[in-house]
Write a structure and sequence with these properties.
The structure is a homodimer. Helix content of chain A is 37%, strand content 20%.
């Protein structure tokens, strides 16, 4: 699926994007227009055998209405399906934009060289038998890479199912997905790392009424990868919704940047990340070489950018329909609900709350107006339950209620579920006028899967309709989340500001742990102070007479070889005075020696005892996502409750603050149970500074743990620190 | 929807079921056979106006194929739709089993009296205008209740949509749900508290291929309620799957008992509990009088019994199909997966893990056998990815792989998703043979929503098929959960054993708090000891010279009027010696007086200081679910993380132990981070004893809090205790 290259070598590339520089300018942007809409396609390995890989696309391209030219290539035939057949790709006429390759793997590198010779810009390689086929295939894959290098040819695949352009009838590949002749057309594009599952998704979505414009199955993505397609789709004027089925990406940082771009251009990326669970990651690893970065980091990327996570075809259908509907994005998360059944109102309320939406009460004006429209004993609240009440003149009570609720200044969106709206096309159409007048998104839930004329009317007018209220709520939440992220992103467009001047960081050569004291010096250079902490050499301990610290103190052996001091017995707590410090120092050094006789011990660290709530601030230079900073509650909360959150470094203090505020246990930091309110500003400052440290030193730093920091009101005590280095060469796989 | 009665008066009834006595014998069991399959139906308020409430059922009953007799009742007509029309219900011939009532609310009580006069056993009242219609309707409802009392008539409704019997074409009600003529038939029954939403559900499920036998919309359920129908369906031989759309029940304990009965008879109850969230509960309260017991207690009832929680129609469709499939329930949660696409394997793995299923590795034998069947570079693991490899002889590789995997002794179930199984009816049918030979449940996921002939073949042979692998996993998990609960229930069929002899409990008259010391005496009678704790009167404090406790101690004012001592300043911690105890006692009494001048203060409690992990053990006598015991982590874990679990009292020690082990933070109790392992047996003993206390004293106890208990290895210290009493008369609403 993806190449075997790790992506540490992208760390340098990231540095540019980190600084806030746009990744690609319009000039250098990858243009896949001819790949999706070729003037002519040459099919290498063409045949008229109906079930052969080279036979299926021949049939689709000649029978479904593709208007371009098709040149079959097969040395054994002179004509094929009434077309002139060419002995070699070198013989086909000029003007070919895409070569579809359906020959045995061993011939593929040569075909690429022929594409290059003929200046053909794109090859789509269906052939399997590369790295997925063991050592021999691996060699072939290397040969293919050599053929590609400098060829000027961009390749999709190998081992893919091909590409689809619905409106131009380019069914350029094989399999049940491309055999479907009449897909609904819509301004939606999908790229899928799994051809088989991706087209299952497309077909199910199609049957539920969703339309597509482009679909790309990318197979091993030896050249063009999932992010290339996402980027192209984001920049394509004919695409409004981008979607992707993804098991893993090589370049997490580019995923983050594309998420930002999605917010800028206002197009959502509907993404299904498969391989979320341990079992799913294991399954993915067994059949692809995708890097299994932690799902938590993918989630962080999705949350920051214009991604909408989905995990079945219904989500695709409902969320894409909502984004394609006419009108503006919602200005907030407040939903008004109008329903014709009490039960539906309860379900709608459940689903809205589960999806993170708000159901504020109606304004007094709205209540007053509704009282004029509804029967005496209808339930006037949010939801408004019109109680199935019918009017004598045949007008729709639900539409009249909807008109009032959408005008309520306390509502950002409207969900309507009433057969008085959906069982009549005229009333359904009137709902579009109500939406237009109200200027807010409207989601219409059907009473049941029927009322085809009303659905058609809603489609015609670009009103988002949904099979159930649950799905309407999911769609509304997706729109509101995207809109909120977009507003935030557009407001905070500037590059992240540093806001402080770091000192010089000295890092030893080579990979491995740094001692606690050296780790603290690194932190200190970035303004993360180790107050109440001193380093003493053995000589200094010997002649110790006074100590400028508040007793009791902790005494720890300081060694580059003993990163986990507790398990080595290399730490003493609650040491009461100078004499005890001397004894404790001797003890911890002896324990460390006993634990690891060859350990290099650089004196001891003496530190004032601290208490309070434990928090963790950490940084990891992830192989896929680059420098990442994490914040979480420490101790049992981290390990049992996994209450941590991530951001891509560097971040400013405001973002660090939002990390602190979003963990589940956040209220423990805000003066819970009479404890002092933590100095969240100072804590955010540490998180932001650490994020700059790992970003600036990404070439050398593997990870940093500040675990724990004791938080006691305004007093923050760094109780331990550990920097882990990598060799500079580790970055080059 | 439900009556306005609270259900505290059911506490006594519960006591019987608590003791393990079966609630109802076969003799007293409610028989609704004639309600669903009447020989004759009288329609009171019959008309031929097509859209009138009394007109719709006339059409359905005369046009859809109902074989019984229909007697329209309408004084203004002599014939109706070619049938003799009667002026009064009193005039209709004998043999009527059900009267369908579609007249104005004010006439309904009289109709019930007429039913009684004619010995008609059932009335289905469609008419609205009762308690949902304000004070006047409330009076009418009371009138209706009086008419019912002693009438011998059982009533469905009022304010319901009616009943459906699919095979006998009894469409006995009105609305779009009953207007559908040709529902698929299947041994599934549903009762719904929301007619509108319930029939939406039915119609969506029908369109997805699900069949039903009975549907009951129960409206206000003034007489027959949701639990009556569940009970009837459980005992009906023609029903294999029971389902319910429920907003709330009056008698939570009966819900629990029906869950046990479901396990005994081996029929699942698929239940959609609407009103789970705060917003949903609020919406439910606005349109019904359902008691809003905490969703957590419903979940506890569902978890203990044969319930399967669902929350959209797709769940109904997939889970009912799985239960209706031929073959045995699974013996465990271990799933083998065979797939034709790597991506589908990843998705299937994610979904299985999310659903709580296990994907163990294949046995060596299975791997060896698969190597003989699959191409060299197929991924042989779990999932098995057959890589789309086709055989030359047209046989199905996925079926051959399935045969091997189902025989693996490490697997309890099989999920297959491959078009080599589903695109050919013959291969689909062969899968049934594989299932039969393997003797384990098989779930077939479709490649896409097509292959109609294969679906028909699978249906014919009773193999569970699903639109996506995700849904197959949900269905497999539902089956495995039900099977596990069933095994456990059948193994532990005996009544709960007490295992100890309680002492005498003295409770003062009247409702309200008990003082901490009196609360501790109540606990002590049930063997929950207050070690290291003493009560001292003010006189005893004055002459205190020695104290048989380990210092330091805590000193607290003991008062029936000050249940929350901290906020009253009525507690001093870390008191070091006798002199300090005397001072502290004076302090806390003064603080208590200052806080509440009229407080009755009964000396002080002196208690050894304790530390350790805080846990909460509590009991509540819930208005709907009766006596309930809870266990959870205390302090911040309870309040911030809401890490608590519930059971219905009484429970034995083994069940209490399973509560302790199922909370998220359970590992904090098992020697986490070098702390002493908690004495879980002793803790479980406390939980079980408290459950007996609240069950035995259900008439008087409103709630008990033991919060916190400090757990420090084998030392358990009850740090505070609070019993809250109710008046005996509180039990009678």
């Amino acid at each position: 699926m993806s190449s075997n290259l790790t992506c540490r070598d992208r760390v340098q590339v990231m540095s540019a994007s980190i600084a806030g520089v746009a990744r690609s300018s319009a000039a250098s942007r990858l243009d896949l227009t001819k790949l999706f809409a070729p003037r002519a396609i040459a099919v290498v390995g063409a045949t008229d055998a109906a079930n052969a890989i080279g036979g299926m696309p021949m049939r689709y391209l000649t029978e479904f209405g593709y208007a371009g030219k098709v040149y079959p290539v097969n040395p054994k035939r002179e004509t094929l399906m009434g077309l002139t057949c060419y002995a070699s790709l070198l013989d086909v006429p000029a003007g070919v934009d895409v070569v579809l390759v359906a020959v045995a793997a061993k011939f593929v590198p040569d075909i690429i060289r022929q594409c290059s010779a003929k200046n053909i810009p794109f090859a789509v390689v269906l052939s399997a038998g590369f790295h997925e086929a063991g050592p021999e295939g691996q060699l072939l894959e290397e040969d293919l890479l050599r053929a590609l290098k400098g060829s000027g040819v961009r390749m999709v695949g190998p081992n893919c199912l091909g590409l689809l352009n619905v409106s131009e009838k380019v069914h350029n590949g094989f399999g049940a997905g491309l055999a479907e002749k009449n897909y609904h057309q819509g301004p939606v594009a999908m790229v899928t790392q799994s051809g088989g599952y991706g087209f299952t998704l497309i077909k199910n979505a199609h049957r539920a009424g969703a339309g597509f414009q482009y679909v790309a199955s990318i197979g091993n993505s030896l050249d063009l990868n999932v992010l290339d397609f996402i980027e192209y789709f984001l920049e394509s004027p004919d695409i409004k919704v981008v979607s992707a089925f993804v098991e893993g990406v090589d370049d997490g940082r580019r995923l983050v940047e594309l998420g930002k771009r999605a917010l800028e251009v206002g197009k959502p990326i509907l993404i299904w990340k498969a391989g979320k669970t341990a079992a799913g990651q294991k399954a993915a690893a067994s059949h692809t070489a995708s890097l299994a970065a932690s799902y938590a980091l993918y989630q962080a990327a999705f949350r920051e950018g214009g991604y909408v996570e989905v995990d079945d075809f219904e989500d695709f259908v409902d969320i894409s329909r909502a984004f394609l509907a006419s009108g503006k994005l919602p200005e907030g998360k407040r939903v008004g609900i109008v329903t014709g059944s009490g039960g539906a109102g309860v379900v709608a309320s459940d689903r809205c709350e589960e999806a993170g939406l708000e159901l504020p009460p109606l304004s007094q004006t709205s209540v007053y107006q509704l009282e004029g429209v509804l029967p005496e004993f209808a339930a006037i609240g949010n939801p408004v339950d019109i109680s199935g009440q019918r009017t004598k003149d045949g007008s729709s009570v639900s539409n009249r209620a909807a008109e009032i609720v959408i005008a309520d200044p306390g509502m950002d969106m409207l969900i309507v579920r009433s057969r008085q709206t959906t069982s009549s096309p005229a009333h359904a159409e009137a709902m579009a006028d109500i939406r237009d007048k109200g200027g807010k998104p409207v989601f219409v839930a059907m009473g049941a899967d029927e009322d085809y004329d009303s659905k058609a009317a809603l489609d015609r007018r670009g009103v988002s309709w949904h099979l159930t209220v649950g799905r309407a709520a999911v769609a509304a939440a997706a729109l509101a989340d995207f809109a909120e992220k977009r507003r935030k992103h557009l407001d905070a467009k500037d590059p992240v500001r540093r806001g402080f001047e770091p000192g010089k960081v000295e890092l030893p050569l080579g990979a491995g742990f740094m001692s606690e004291w050296d780790s603290r010096k690194v932190l200190d250079a970035y303004g993360i102070a180790s107050s109440g902490t001193k380093h003493l050499s053995r000589a200094e301990v010997a002649k110790l007479a006074a100590l400028d610290l508040k007793f009791p103190v902790a005494v720890k052996a300081n060694s580059v070889n003993i990163p986990h001091k507790s398990e080595a017995g290399a730490i003493r707590l609650d040491v009461a005075d100078i004499a005890a410090v001397k004894m404790a120092a001797a003890d911890v050094i002896a324990s460390a020696r006993h634990y690891k006789p060859a350990a290099e011990i650089d004196g001891v660290i003496v530190q004032e005892m601290a208490s309070g709530l434990e928090v963790i601030v950490g940084a990891v230079n992830d192989a896929c996502f680059g420098p990442v900073v994490l914040f979480g509650l420490g101790g049992v909360f981290a390990e049992v409750m996994k209450d941590v959150t991530y951001r891509f470094a560097p971040i400013d203090k405001a973002t660090a603050r939002s990390m602190i505020e979003e963990i589940r246990g956040a209220k423990l930091l805000s003066g819970y149970r009479g404890q002092a309110k933590a100095d969240l500003d100072a804590l955010a400052d540490i998180v932001s500074r650490l994020s700059w440290l790992v970003a600036d030193q990404a070439e050398r730093i593997d990870s940093i743990d500040i675990n724990p920091i004791f938080v006691n009101g305004s007093r923050l005590s760094v109780a331990d620190a550990l920097v882990v280095l990598r060799d500079k060469s580790d970055g080059q796989a």
